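Hi there, hope your week has been kind to you so far. Thanks so much in advance, here it is:
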Amino acid sequence: MSKTFLFFTLILIALFFMLGCTQEVKQAEAPLIPMEDFFKNPQKIAFQLSPNGEYLAFLQPWENRLNVHVQKIGEDKAVRVTDATERDIAGYFWANNNRLAFVKDKGGDENYKLYAVDVDASNLKELTPFEKVRVQIIDDLEDNEDEMIIGLNKRDKRIFDAYRININTGEMDVIAQNPGNITGWLTDNDGLLRAAVTADGVNTSVLYREKESDDFKTIITMSFKETLAPLYFTFDNKNIYAASNLGRDKTTIVKYDIANAKELEVIYEHPEVDVYRLLRSKKRKVITGVSFFTDMRHYYFFDDMRKDLQKILEKKLQGYEVVVASMSKDERKVLVRTYSDKSRGDYYYYNLDTKELNKLVEISPWLNEKHLADMKPIKYQSRDGLTINGYLTLPKGVKAKNLPVVVNPHGGPWARNHWGFNPEVQFLVNRGYALLQMNFRGSTGYGREFWEISFKQWGRTMQDDITDGVKWLINQGIADPQRIGIYGGSYGGYATLAGLTFTPDLYTCGVDYVGVSNLFTFMNTIPPYWEPYRQMWYEMVGDPEKDAEMMKAASPVFHVDKIKAPLFVAQGANDPRVNKDESDQMVAALKKRGIDVPYMVKDNEGHGFRNEENRFDFYREMEEFLAKHLEGRILEKKDLD
């Protein structure tokens, strides 16, 4: 090899190395993305196919609120069929091929009213014009063009009677009066109301009747800790498919003889997690598969046609989680949704006859996936040897060492975090924070034992699991021990307050969003329709009389003298789940000690902020608060010029 050739080779290697380093620097310098891009209303979302597959309905902003729009497939023009200006439409569905039903509440009070409107925006009808009454959808009766079955707590705010209602006129008849303990109803494949679930707060029962003219009879009674949740009647309407943990730890899909209270067959079980969701084809009258969550969503198919469809879609949409959102009644036209951790995803329309896949919309096209961060599943051990699953999202391209951290416990608490796009996560990570989420004990999906060991453990071992996650992150060298914040909503808000109160040296600051501060007042202000669960709550959280000492010890409002870290509180004035008094008490107690606690109250919100302008206010103040105390990045107005 000549010296000249060697010289130029070394030059090229050096240039290549320098370019590589430059690229690395560019990756490390993920641009600051405007807060509004994470939290503004999506371009279009919540697509649904009409039963005949000829129309698409979706939510799209109008007057700064998400409203229902309808578009004929193959045409460009969409018709807006709702005119909500105070709050987003809370939900909608197709009542038949020509008519849609939708629900909305007032100021976040969750007293949803039901409306119906034609696809051309005509014949708008308020179907449940009752004040302070909440509607439930029991069955949309897809084979009945004119009726559906709903539940209303009109007679008694604590319970819901079942009504058959005409979607054109609003005329309704009671088809089952709730005796005072029914918490759920189930129809068969012909739309007849034939099963129900009751709760007295301690036990649950499944009721059954052969015909609608018969009285309900109790088939099985069990502790509320046990599950036999009816999903569907079998296609011959004789038995049911159910999610059950009877005689086992993990919830499993079973076939069940409801008339004789006998499990017939295990359809699917998973050794690590609960399985609740059963997929079916009503047209072909077959069950097609199940979906479940471990680290991510997974499927198991029994049916070759459904399995092949999933394979086709995943091949066409590689790199994304692919979900069949809905199908036309003939199951030839398919609405497809993609998901990822760095994108809200897209909607597609797939025609099984032509094999054509057409993109309908990118939900948030202003977000560039290249600038967002990977959400990684993680595991760590609690101090008593429990495996805690969670997710860690790190700032893109930044060395995972000595970072400011936001710990984000989920709400519920009997819920769980999932892998996928979360605007709060990506927003905070974009601001330079490592984001830790954990499924502490009590989180659902991990079996009965994992759930039960959380009973009466608010502020105790449940909180220890969160603390142990923080310490794990410190031991990994990822977290800067002097810059750790905690933020959560609902139970996550409680965990924030508990973290600042019971581990005051661990956190640098906290953000409490509609969180519980006082277990006594929380129990006294639950919505009336939660009343059937009161005794269950007493066993899971605490009995205000029998467990008064424990509940006081676990209520942050009684221990504000221990708080050292700054706190920001946000609350909806009309919250029916966590009453505004929960936040008022905490703020007042801190102010009494001379501590200035930023407090944001929105008069037109409930349990969380739905209105776009309120979300902007909240996250803007959160950004400034965290930057002040954790020294994360912040996007100044001058950066946008």
Observations:
- The chain has four domains: 48-177, 181-290, 303-368, 372-640.
